[in-house]
Amino acid sequence: MNAQELLDKIKELPNKPVDVPTAPPVELVAMVVRWGRHLKQWKATTLADFARVSLSTIERVERGEKVSEKALDRIAQALGYESGAFTKPRLPIGPERAAEQLAETYGYLEPVTVAPMKTHKAIREAAKCDAYLIHRPDVPETYDNDIANLGEWLDLASFILSDIVEDPSPTERGRRDLYNDILKCVAELERRGLTVLSGVMQAPQPGLPDWKVAIVSVTPRLTDPGAAKRRHVMVDRRCVALPGKRSPT
Predict the structure, then answer these.
(1) Dihedral (C-alpha) 225, 7, 3, 76: value to the nearest 10 degrees?
(2) Which of 20, 105, 133, 182 has the highest CB neighbour count under 10 A?
(3) Which residues neighbour 108 within 8 Å (Cβ) at sequence distance 6 or greater?
(4) CATH top-level class for 3-107?
(5) What is the pLDDT of residues 135-187, one digit of tens each?
(6) How far is 211 from 205, CA to CA, in rounded Å?
(7) What is the pTM for the complete model shown?
(8) Strands 194-202 and 212-220: what pairing?
(9) SS3 for 143?
């Protein structure tokens, strides 16, 4: 069953009494698990290993079949949700409203090609963008200063390579030194257990058709073991829209 079939099935579910708390329907859980795994670009075996359940359990959940609450709690936590997200009774919102919420959550996502931020080319492409977005899901606050430091280096590189400075063409050695300093910052984040990926997102704005945003993804290896092999990240188009402007849909 693919995502569209699951969505159609959710819409067809009978409305339950709105005053009786019930657990999320298995069809809804199936869609959330499948989409969550897709967004992380995890294989079913990766999710199974990380959730400490069998591969057949993951396959049953994604087919909309019932499994134990313990297994569902483990899967929820592996995907970044709280324990009970797939099992705790709550007041139903109705299948149509559930489908609307899923569309609101996932309908603005756009894939962006990324690679490990380990080359001068990656730094140069990020610095030449009009803006950058650092995405850091589940990264503890203890890394705040290190990530802020990376942002400051990117600001400096962007400024030096822009047309704002009087001499927009630093020497080749000067550029190499700057790129190496940024790569040292990235290497320190990697040494401390994070994965750093980067890519460029075409994000045209009203009156700015060539607007580009550098996407920097920072994730902990402990909670996202497959990140190093990731080739795309999903970015919400609304996150790269300029204040007061609305990105084309």
Answers:
(1) 20
(2) 182
(3) 236, 237, 238, 249
(4) mainly alpha
(5) 998 899 999 999 999 999 999 998 887 755 555 556 777 888 999 999 999 99
(6) 6
(7) 0.73
(8) antiparallel
(9) helix
